[in-house]
Each structure stands twice: as structure tokens, then as C-alpha cells.
Amino acid sequence: MTSRIRLLEPHLINQIAAGEVIERPFSAIKELVENSIDAGATQIDVIVRDGGKSYISVSDNGCGMTEEELQLAVERHATSKLKDSNLFQISTLGFRGEALPSIGSVSRLHITSLYEGAQDAWTFSIEGGTKSPLKPAQRLSGTLIEVRDLFYATPARLKFLRATTTELQAIRESLDRLAMAHPQVGLSLKDDQRVIFNYRAQKNLMDRLQEIMGGEFMENSIPLDLERDGYVVKGYVSLPTYHRATANHQYLFVNQRPVKDRVLMGVIKAAYQDVLARDRHPLVALFLTLPPEAVDMNVHPAKTEVRFQDVQKVRSLMISAIRHGIHGESQRASSHTAQVAIAALRPPMLPLNQGKLHLAASHRPAFTPPSQSLVAPFEVPVYSHLSENESTYEETPTPQIQYGPLGQARAQLHSTYIISETPSGIVIVDQHAAHERLVYESLKAARMTQNVPRQMLLIPEVVELKEADCARLLTLKNDLGACGLGIEALGDQSLLVREIPAALGEINPKSLLQDLADELSELGEALSLQDRLDAVCSSMACHGSVRAGRRMQIEEMNALLRQMESTAYSAQCNHGRPTYVELKLSDVEKLFGRK
Ligand code: ADP
Ligand code: MG
């Protein structure tokens, strides 16, 4: 009897590999562009048709291939890149020798290349795995690779391709990532004749990021640069008040390779945990560089996953870098917030002249004051003593008090917003959001010194919760105690609350405990104890901040502003909402057509 086990033909092996390496047109393009980068190209031009489904070409000015190399390149596991056959010393983007044979097995692949310094170029093709003989060709430099009818040889895969626009979007995305990692390379993408982007070669990362992420990101982000024992993290992360609903704008790189790595994504989440709502995501472009042997790139054929030798070291480096960055800028609200506010304030879009005419001709004569009963009783503003007219105000010598960057409080509106004046603009503070952050930071600080002012409840409160929730809170009993929250077990499904942090004022212990239990269950074990306790303080601050809707005196408002100026992270509440917006006078002037 003949054996039923047989070796697969090389052609089939390649198609199987193609299933992993070349998932969609964007993955073929990614592999080809990576090859060009590995070949030392300084200019790479990509052209696609039908979202890469019918045609892809990648042209570079790299080192090219000799006649022999050209033929070898499409052989499986043929690579020029694995120095000393060491999988843990990888300094190139490719190393598996799989991309070209895979692409050649499922499409019509044509390669034309001129080896650096050689006289003649050569061309070679492979269609559905069948090779044709090498021929002389014309080419000025580098390599041109053309891929027609991707997956024509594997109809099952063809069916999974998406709409042209979707494929094109994915191509753009993946090329953007490569472009960020290699600013020194010029990279262009055309959809047939239409230029989609043309990134010129840049000397530094910042210029490339500006091109791709846009000026708004650069303006609202914080530069990072931290090194520890040969591990380096560099890049930009957004201010906590500048965030998105998805993590799509998180660009991560390890040793100049774009990666999608769960560990790193988790680290970013943890680093912002303190300053951002859980369903919002910061924008980041972070570049991690570590010794090649400290990271395994060979986790998946697509090479976008990595395995770190020392996850803890990576985690702590990244968290320190990001937190330090955020901390340094923690009192800066994003300019984006102010722009949104200004845009919302802009009058309806009438051409300026027309607007004026309209007012003069019809509105003014027809204007009647609203009936007395509709006007809310107007309290004399507390600041009325300041001045009747501007000139006396200007002549009045500025009081001795020094006002900080958040300016001098002038008024409170709707018992919620503090309006303050700075030399160059107007600041609007959301008193509730600001207060929430202040309570939070004070709780955190007090927790550190084991000295949280607390209030005993006159009658201890019995709170009923699910068994699992009770257990979850009780495992942290001592730590919660250190935060000022005294609880005790009382049966399987209830707890006794004896004391709460004084900063919280009057609160509902049941809803506080329920929120804490939910929070802890959601965070799971992902965070360190410290971080979990911070989350506890954050939840408590949220419960304790009832200041919206409370009238404040000018002195009290100024005190709040000064406290914000001296408190870390005061530009955003615990959920990442801004606590204040600053409108520049120049913008306000524009609103009124003064500039
Ligand atoms: P890998 O990149 O893992 O080595 P590939 O199948 O992608 O495997 O490419 C095989 C080999 O072909 C590469 O090692 C390289 O020597 C050569 N090659 C591919 N593309 C180019 C290019 N654009 N310029 C020069 N050499 C190339
Ligand atoms: Mg390759």
C-alpha cells in the first residue's frame, strides 16, 4: 500500500504561504515597499488600479538585483537578509523570503531590475507559480515590480476582497505607517493617474508626521523622548483633551517596523487611564527602539506582531514616558477645544456686508424689547465695582495680586461657568469639571501620605451589592481605607460603610460603592494596584463633585483658578473633558470682523 502522506508541490506550498502573508492588496504592497526600503531606496512610487485588485506597481531606486538574484528572489525562503542565520538579529524589514514567491503563486508578477553599477537590466515573470525565462530589459535604476490580477489563481481568496475604495483606504493606511517609520524615504501613491499622496523625503520625523497626522495633531500633542538601558521611546502623544472614539489613530513602531501590538495598546490605555474616559482613545505616534535580540519579530508571517523578551521593561518605560509627558503639560488644554468653541460661536454664514445691511435695514427698527416677564431677574454682578468705562479701569493701577495664566475671574454664568480675563484672551472654566479634578488630585496626594481627611458617618450605612462585588471591594478593604473609605463585611451580599473621605461632602454611599465595584471589575488585573487605587479615587472624586449649579463669590472663583494652576492635570477632568477653554482675543476679534 502506498503511503497516503505526500509532500505538497512547491506551487501549493507557496499558495498556502500566500494565504498568510498576502491577505489583501495592501499586504502585497506593504511587502513590496518593505523590500524597496530594505534595498536602500530613497524614492518609492506606488501605482494601483481598482484598489490594487487588477494592478499594482512598485518602483524604487534601490540597489537592484543581479540576473541570478532575480531568479532566486522568487524561490521560497530565498533571502539576502538573514545575516549569520540569526532570527534574533534582524535589522531589515524582510527576513522570511516569502513575499515574492507568495505573490508570484497567486498573481501575474513581473520584475524588472538593474543591479547597481551593472550595464543591463533584466526582467523576469512568474504567473500563477509558472516562471518564464529571464530577458534583457530597459531600466535606469533600481527595481520595478508589477502585480496583475492578484488572487486570480486562488478564486476563493478573490471573493474576500472588498470594495475598491475600502482596499484603497487600507493601502493608504498601511503606506502611511511605513512612511512615518521611514521619513528619509520619498513615497508616493497614485490611483491610476490620480495622486493620492506624495510624501517628499524628509530629514526629520517631525516633518513627516506633520504631513501625515496633520498640523492639528502636532499642535495638540506632546513630544516624548526617553531612554533606559538601551530601550528608547520617542514620538508624540496627544494631550488628554484631544482624543478620538477609536484607537485607529494610534501608530506604533518597533525598531522602525509598524506593528499592531496588544501589549503596547494596553500600555497606552493604562498610561491615559487617569485622564481619559474609558471609551475615548488618544492619538499617538510612538517609536520604540530596542536591541534586536530583545524582540522577536517572527511571530506571524505578516510581521506586524511582536514578542518582547522583557514585557515589564517595555511597559514601564512607555508608561513613564507618556505619563511624564502628560504630567509636564497637564495644565494645557488643547487648542483644538478653543477652535471648536470659536467655530460654534461664529455667526450664521452671511457675507459680512449683507449681514450689516440686514441689521441696519430691518432688525433695528423692528426691535422690541422682550416682555418684562421673560427677563430673568438680573443679579448685580459681583464685579460691577470694577469700572463703568474702560479708561478709568485702565488707569486704575493693577492690584498687587498676581494672576496666573488662567487670569482674573470676572463673573459666573448659569451657576456653572467661571469667566475670567487674561491679558490676551478670555477663559471659560467648567467649575464642576475643574472641581472634580481638584478633588481627585487632592485624594491621590492624601492617599500617598496616608493622610486622607475623613468623615465618620453618624449612622453607618448598610449597602447591598452582589456577592462578587462585595468580595471585590473587600479584597481592597485596607487600601480603600487608606483612601478614606472605611468598609466592613456584613454578610455575603452587604457591606457596612463607616467613613468616607471628607472631600466628598454629602454623597450616596450605595451608588459610590456600586460604581467602584463596576470600575474594579472592568479594570480587572490589567492594572497595578496603584493604578487601580487611582481609579478608585477618580470614581470617588466624580461622586464628590457637586459644584455645578452652585453660586460662587469672585474670591472663591479666583481661589479655584489659582488651585487649578497649581494642580497637576488640571486641564482636564477625570474623564478627559476639558476643564477650561481659552479664547484668544485675536479669535474673538475675528468673530466680530475686527480683524
Ligand atoms: P525577504 O524580504 O524576506 O528577504 P522577499 O520574498 O520579500 O523576502 O524578497 C526576496 C529577496 O529578493 C530579498 O531578500 C531581496 O534580496 C530581493 N528583493 C526583493 N525586492 C527587492 C527590491 N525591490 N530591490 C532589491 N532586491 C529585492
Ligand atoms: Mg520582503
From TrEMBL:
Residues 209-327 form the DNA mismatch repair protein S5 domain. SUPFAM superfamilies: ATPase domain of HSP90 chaperone/DNA topoisomerase II/histidine kinase (SSF55874), DNA mismatch repair protein MutL (SSF118116), Ribosomal protein S5 domain 2-like (SSF54211). The keyword Metal-binding does not apply. Keywords: DNA damage, DNA repair. It comes from the Bacteria. Pfam families: DNA_mis_repair, HATPase_c_3, MutL_C. Residues 409-552 form the MutL C-terminal dimerisation domain. NCBIfam families: mutl, PRK00095.2-4. Belongs to the DNA mismatch repair MutL/HexB family. This protein is involved in the repair of mismatches in DNA. It is required for dam-dependent methyl-directed DNA mismatch repair. May act as a 'molecular matchmaker', a protein that promotes the formation of a stable complex between two or more DNA-binding proteins in an ATP-dependent manner without itself being part of a final effector complex. HAMAP family: DNA_mis_repair (MF_00149). This is DNA mismatch repair protein MutL. The gene is mutL.
